[in-house]
C-alpha cells in the first residue's frame, strides 16, 4: 500500500464559537490531483492556512511525508517540500519575474547566507530559473518587474516559483481565479502535467477545471467534509447536490 | 529606610505614572484611531507647559495658565492635524516618523525663537502649596497628590467618553473599521481632528502640571515622549487600559528603582560605587522591563485584537 | 537610461567628495577638509543604516546606539592607553585605529545581536519604538555611568594613530575616512546584489513570499540588522576621532533621527543616497548655521517638504525612480 504524501487527521480550528474547521480528515496520495471544493465561507482558506503553517489548528494532526508538522512555521514547511500558491498572488513586486524565481532556486539550494557573489552573474541560479519560466510560458517576460505583470502572468509566476522548490506536494489556492476562459484552459493543461512532478491539493471554484483535472474531490461545507470521492461519485452524491450545487431535495 | 519614605516614593512613582498616562493616552488614541505614530507629541507637552508659564506670568494666575495650556495645545494639535498630519495617515510609518521628527525640529526651534533659550519658571498655585499629613507617611506635597487625582479623573473621564458617548462610539468604530465608519456617513476628517486635538490637550495638560515641578524649557517633552512610548509598547498600542496600566507600572518601577537599587547595592558594594552603579542600572530598569515583557508578549500586555 | 544616469551621478558625487577637500587642503583651508570628513563619516553611518532600512525595510530608530558605542570604544581605548591603565581583565588600551575599528565593529555587532533578536519579534510601529527604547537605555546608561565622563563626555587627547599616516593633519584623516566610506559603499553594493541581498529585499517587499519559499525572514533580518550596526559602529569610532570627543549625544535619539534623515534626504535604498544626503545635510548645517542659530527650524521645513512632496530624495530628483533588474 502506498503511503499518503499529505495526511490530515481530525483537524479542528475554532474561532470563538465558530467551527471554521470541523473534524476534517483528508489525504493526498502520490500522483493524484485532489480537489477541495466548497461554497464561499466553507473554510477552505482556513484549512489551507493551517496546512501551510499560517494558522495553528485547535486540535488534530497534519502529517507530511509521514512527519507531524505541528510546530513547524511556514518556512520550515516549505523546506520540507510544500510548494504553494496564494489565492491572491504573492510576489516581490519590485523584482523581475526572473529574480522572483531565482529566490526560489536559491532557497532550494539552501544558500541565502552568501553575501558577495552577485546573483546577476550566477548561472547556477539563472539557468534553472529560466527553465522554470519557460515551462510556465513566461520566458519572454523574465525581465519585467513582477508588479507590472498581468494578473494571469502572476499566477504563472507563482507556479514557476513553487516548481523551482522541487516540492513533494503542491498546494494551489484557487489558481484559476480571475483568469479568462483561455487562461483557465491553458492553466488546466499545465496543472495536468504537474501532477507528474508532485501530487496537487487543489482548492478551486472553477468546476470545469476541477472536473477535468481531479482524481478525487472533497467537498467542504461549513468546515466539514461532507463527501470525498471520484468525479463521478461527487457528481451524483445527493448530499453534495443538495448542499453545494443548491439543487432541491 | 523607613516605611514612610517607601510610601512617599511609591506616591512619587504614582504621580510620574499618572503624568505618563496623560501623554500615553493621547499617543495610543491617535495610533489606535488613525494609525499614526506621532513623535511630535512631546512638543505638544512642551507647548502646554510654555503656554501655562507664559500666561501665568502675565496674569499672575496659574489657573488661567492651565486653561491656556489646554487651549494652546489643542489648537496647536488641530492646526498640525489639518495642515500636515492628515497627509500622513495613508503613508508608511517611516514617512510618519520623519515628518513628525521634522515637526519636533520646527516646534522646538520655533519655541526657542519666541521665548528665548532660558527656562521659564512656573510656581505651584498658592491654593495647592504646602503639604498634607497622610497616615503612615507624615507630610506629603499637596500638589503631587492633586496631580495624581487629576490623572485619575482624566482616566475615568476618558473611559466614560469612549464607553458612553457618541464621540466615543465613533472612536471605537474608527479603531475597528475605518472604511465602515466613513461609509456610515460620519465625517471622518472632523473626527480625526477632534481626536488629535483631544490627545494634544491631554499632553498640554500634563506639560502644564509638570511645569510647576520642574523648569519649563525647550526639549522638556522628549524624555517624557520616550517614556510614553515605553508605556504604550508595554501596555499594547491602541489600548487606553494598557496605557493606564503601563504608565503606572513604568512610573513606579522607575521611581522605586532609582530609590532602592543604590541602597540594595550598598549592602554588597562600597558606598562610592553603589550609588553610581545603582543609578546607572536604575536608569535602564524600565527598558529591561519592556524587553522582558516583549519577549513573552510581543504585542504588549493589553494588545488590541489584530 | 536612468540606470546609467544614476551611476554617472554616483561617480560624480564620489569624485566631488574627494576633490573638494584635496583642493581645500591645497588652498590652505583645513576647515573645509574637516567639513568633508564629517560628510564622509555621516555618509558611512547612513550607508550602514541603509542596509537595514533601505534593503531590509527595517525602520530602526535606535541606530545611534551603535554609532555611540563605536565612539565610546574609540574614546575608552584611547583614554586607557593615554593613562596607561588597563581596562578589565588586564586588557590594555590602544591608540591604533585598526584595532579600535575592529573592536568597535565587534562590540556594535555583539550589542546589536540581542537588541535585534528582541526587536525583530515585532514589526511596524512596535519595531520603531523598541529600537528607540533600547537606544535610550544605552544613552541613559552612558549618561549616568561616571567612569567615562557621564553626561560630560570623554575627550580623546590626541587623535588615534594609523600606521604610516599622520592622522593629526586634516587631509590624511579625511582620506582614511573616505576610503572606509568607499569600502562601506562597496559592501552595500555587494550585499544588494548577493543571494543574501535578494532574500533581504524580498523580506521588505513581501515577507510571506520569502517564508513560502522556505526562507525564514527572522534570520535574514537579524543578520542585516547586525551587519548594519557594525558599519554604523565603525562610523562612530571615526566620528569620535574626528571630534576628539565622545559624549552621550552620539547615542541620543536625535542622532538616530538624523541618520534616517540623511538617507531620506538623499534617497532611500539607493547606493549613494546616504552620500548625497550627508553632503546636503552638512552643507545645510554649515550654510544656514552661519546665518542663523535656528537652522534646525529650516531643516525641519525642508525635511517636511521632502517627506510630503519629494519622496525619492535628492537622487530621486536627479536620477529618477530606483530600478531593480
From TrEMBL, chain A:
Domain of life: Bacteria
GO cellular component: plasma membrane
Residue stretches making up the ABC transporter domain: 6-247
InterPro entries named among the record's database cross-references: AAA+_ATPase, ABC_AA/LPS_Transport, ABC_transporter-like_ATP-bd, ABC_transporter-like_CS, BCA_ABC_TP_C, P-loop_NTPase
Matching Pfam families: ABC_tran, BCA_ABC_TP_C
Alphabetical UniProt keywords: ATP-binding, Nucleotide-binding, Transport
TM region positions: none
Presence of keyword Ubl conjugation: no
Single GO term (MF): ATP binding
Membership in a protein family: Belongs to the ABC transporter superfamily.
Protein name as it appears in the record: ABC transporter ATP-binding protein
TrEMBL record, chain B:
Assigned keywords, A-Z: Amino-acid transport, Cell membrane, Membrane, Transmembrane, Transmembrane helix, Transport
Coiled-coil residue spans: none
Protein origin, superkingdom: Bacteria
Gene Ontology cellular-component annotations: plasma membrane
Gene Ontology terms describing biological process: amino acid transport
Membrane topology: Multi-pass membrane protein
TM stretches of this protein: 16-37, 44-64, 70-89, 101-122, 142-162, 183-213, 225-252, 264-296
Pfam families linked: BPD_transp_2
Location in the cell: Cell membrane
Similarity field: Belongs to the binding-protein-dependent transport system permease family. LivHM subfamily.
PANTHER family the UniProt entry points to: ABC TRANSPORTER ATP-BINDING PROTEIN (PTHR11795:SF442), BRANCHED-CHAIN AMINO ACID TRANSPORT SYSTEM PERMEASE PROTEIN LIVH (PTHR11795)
Protein name, as recorded: Branched-chain amino acid ABC transporter permease
TrEMBL record, chain C:
InterPro entries per the UniProt record, alphabetical: ABC_transp_permease, LivM-like
CC per GO annotation: plasma membrane
Membrane topology summary: Multi-pass membrane protein
Name the UniProt record assigns to this protein: Branched-chain amino acid ABC transporter permease
Coiled coil residues, start to end: none
Localisation per UniProt entry: Cell membrane
Biological source species: Nitratireductor aestuarii
Pfam families in the record: BPD_transp_2
Keywords: Cell membrane, Membrane, Transmembrane, Transmembrane helix
Major location (coarse): membrane
TM helices/strands, residue ranges: 34-53, 60-79, 99-118, 125-142, 171-191, 212-239, 272-291, 297-319
A GO molecular function held by the record: branched-chain amino acid transmembrane transporter activity
Amino acid at each position: 500500500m502506498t503511503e499518503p504524501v499529505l495526511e490530515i487527521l481530525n483537524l479542528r480550528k475554532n474561532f470563538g464559537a465558530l467551527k471554521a474547521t470541523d473534524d476534517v480528515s483528508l489525504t493526498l496520495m502520490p500522483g493524484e490531483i485532489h480537489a477541495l471544493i466548497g461554497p464561499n465561507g466553507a473554510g477552505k482558506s482556513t484549512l489551507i492556512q493551517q496546512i501551510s503553517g499560517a494558522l495553528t489548528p485547535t486540535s488534530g494532526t497534519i502529517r507530511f511525508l509521514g512527519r507531524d508538522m505541528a510546530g513547524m512555521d511556514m518556512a520550515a514547511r516549505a523546506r520540507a517540500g510544500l510548494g504553494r500558491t496564494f489565492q491572491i498572488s504573492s510576489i516581490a513586486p519590485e523584482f523581475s519575474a526572473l529574480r522572483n524565481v531565482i529566490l526560489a532556486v536559491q532557497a532550494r539550494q539552501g544558500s541565502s547566507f552568501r553575501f558577495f557573489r552577485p546573483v546577476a552573474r550566477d548561472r547556477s541560479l539563472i539557468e534553472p530559473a529560466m527553465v522554470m519560466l519557460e515551462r510556465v510560458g513566461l520566458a519572454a517576460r523574465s525581465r519585467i518587474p513582477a508588479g507590472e505583470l498581468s494578473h494571469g502572468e502572476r499566477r504563472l509566476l507563482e507556479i514557476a516559483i513553487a516548481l523551482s522548490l522541487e516540492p513533494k506536494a503542491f498546494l494551489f489556492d484557487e489558481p484559476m481565479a480571475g483568469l479568462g476562459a483561455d487562461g483557465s484552459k491553458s492553466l488546466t493543461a499545465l496543472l495536468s502535467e504537474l501532477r507528474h512532478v508532485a501530487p496537487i491539493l487543489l482548492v478551486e471554484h472553477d468546476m470545469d477545471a476541477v472536473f477535468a483535472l481531479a482524481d478525487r474531490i472533497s467537498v467542504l461545507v461549513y468546515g466539514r467534509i461532507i463527501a470525498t470521492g471520484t468525479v463521478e461519485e461527487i457528481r451524483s452524491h445527493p448530499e453534495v447536490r443538495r448542499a453545494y450545487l443548491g439543487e432541491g431535495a | 529606610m523607613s516605611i514612610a519614605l517607601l510610601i512617599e516614593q511609591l506616591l512619587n512613582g504614582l504621580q510620574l505614572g499618572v503624568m505618563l498616562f496623560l501623554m500615553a493616552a493621547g499617543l495610543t488614541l491617535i495610533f489606535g484611531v488613525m494609525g499614526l505614530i506621532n513623535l511630535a507629541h512631546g512638543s505638544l507637552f512642551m507647548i502646554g507647559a510654555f503656554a501655562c508659564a507664559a500666561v501665568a506670568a502675565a496674569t499672575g494666575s496659574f489657573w488661567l495658565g492651565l486653561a491656556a495650556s489646554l487651549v494652546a495645545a489643542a489648537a496647536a494639535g488641530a492646526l498640525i492635524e489639518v495642515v500636515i498630519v492628515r497627509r500622513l495617515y495613508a503613508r508608511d510609518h517611516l514617512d510618519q516618523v520623519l515628518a513628525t521628527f521634522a515637526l519636533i525640529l520646527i516646534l522646538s526651534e520655533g519655541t526657542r525663537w519666541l521665548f528665548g533659550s532660558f527656562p521659564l519658571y512656573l510656581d505651584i498655585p498658592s491654593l495647592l502649596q504646602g503639604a498634607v499629613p497622610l497616615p503612615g507617611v507624615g507630610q506629603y506635597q499637596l500638589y503631587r497628590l492633586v496631580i495624581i487625582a487629576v490623572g485619575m479623573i482624566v482616566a475615568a473621564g476618558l473611559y466614560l467618553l469612549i464607553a458612553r458617548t457618541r464621540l466615543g462610539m465613533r472612536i471605537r468604530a474608527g479603531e475597528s473599521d475605518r472604511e465602515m465608519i466613513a461609509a456610515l456617513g460620519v465625517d471622518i476628517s472632523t473626527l480625526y481632528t477632534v481626536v488629535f486635538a483631544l490627545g494634544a490637550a491631554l499632553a498640554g495638560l500634563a506639560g502644564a502640571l509638570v511645569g510647576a515641578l520642574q523648569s519649563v524649557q525647550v526639549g522638556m517633552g522628549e524624555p517624557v515622549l520616550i517614556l510614553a512610548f515605553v508605556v504604550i509598547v508595554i501596555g499594547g498600542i491602541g489600548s487606553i487600559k494598557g496605557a493606564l496600566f503601563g504608565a503606572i507600572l513604568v512610573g513606579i518601577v522607575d521611581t522605586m528603582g532609582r530609590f532602592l537599587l543604590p541602597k540594595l547595592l550598598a549592602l554588597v558594594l562600597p558606598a562610592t560605587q553603589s550609588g553610581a552603579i545603582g543609578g546607572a542600572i536604575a536608569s535602564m530598569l524600565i527598558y529591561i522591563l519592556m524587553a522582558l515583557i516583549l519577549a513573552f508578549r510581543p504585542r504588549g500586555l493589553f494588545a488590541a485584537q489584530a | 537610461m536612468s540606470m546609467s544616469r544614476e551611476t554617472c551621478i554616483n561617480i560624480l558625487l564620489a569624485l566631488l567628495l574627494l576633490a573638494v577637500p584635496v583642493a581645500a587642503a591645497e588652498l590652505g583651508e583645513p576647515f573645509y577638509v574637516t567639513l568633508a570628513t564629517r560628510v564622509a563619516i555621516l555618509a558611512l553611518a547612513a550607508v550602514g543604516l541603509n542596509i537595514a532600512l533601505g534593503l531590509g525595510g527595517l525602520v530602526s530608530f535606535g541606530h545611534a546606539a551603535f554609532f555611540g558605542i563605536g565612539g565610546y570604544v574609540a574614546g575608552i581605548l584611547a583614554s586607557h592607553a593615554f593613562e596607561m591603565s588597563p581596562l578589565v581583565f588586564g586588557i590594555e588600551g590602544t591608540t591604533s585605529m585598526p584595532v579600535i575599528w575592529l573592536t568597535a565593529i565587534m562590540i556594535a555587532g555583539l550589542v546589536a545581536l540581542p537588541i535585534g533578536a528582541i526587536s525583530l519579534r515585532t514589526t511596524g510601529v512596535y519595531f520603531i519604538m523598541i529600537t528607540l527604547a533600547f537606544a535610550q537605555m544605552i544613552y541613559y546608561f552612558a549618561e549616568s555611568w561616571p567612569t567615562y565622563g557621564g553626561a560630560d563626555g570623554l575627550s580623546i587627547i590626541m587623535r588615534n594613530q594609523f600606521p604610516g599616516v599622520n592622522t593629526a593633519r586634516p587631509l590624511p584623516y579625511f582620506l582614511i575616512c573616505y576610503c572606509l566610506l568607499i569600502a562601506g559603499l562597496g559592501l552595500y553594493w555587494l550585499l544588494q546584489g548577493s543571494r543574501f541581498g535578494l532574500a533581504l529585499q524580498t523580506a521588505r517587499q513581501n515577507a510571506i513570499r520569502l517564508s513560502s519559499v522556505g526562507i525564514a525572514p527572522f534570520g535574514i533580518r537579524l543578520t542585516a540588522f547586525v551587519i548594519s550596526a557594525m558599519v554604523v559602529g565603525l562610523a562612530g569610532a571615526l566620528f569620535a576621532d574626528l571630534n576628539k570627543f565622545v559624549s552621550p549625544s552620539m547615542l541620543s535619539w536625535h542622532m538616530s533621527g538624523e541618520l534616517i534623515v540623511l538617507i531620506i534626504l538623499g534617497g532611500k535604498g539607493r547606493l549613494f543616497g546616504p552620500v548625497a544626503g550627508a553632503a546636503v545635510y552638512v552643507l545645510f548645517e554649515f550654510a544656514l548655521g552661519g546665518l542663523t542659530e535656528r537652522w534646525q527650524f529650516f531643516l525641519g521645513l525642508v525635511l517636511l517638504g521632502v517627506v510630503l512632496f519629494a519622496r525619492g530624495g535628492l537622487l530621486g530628483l536627479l536620477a529618477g525612480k530606483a530600478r531593480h533588474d
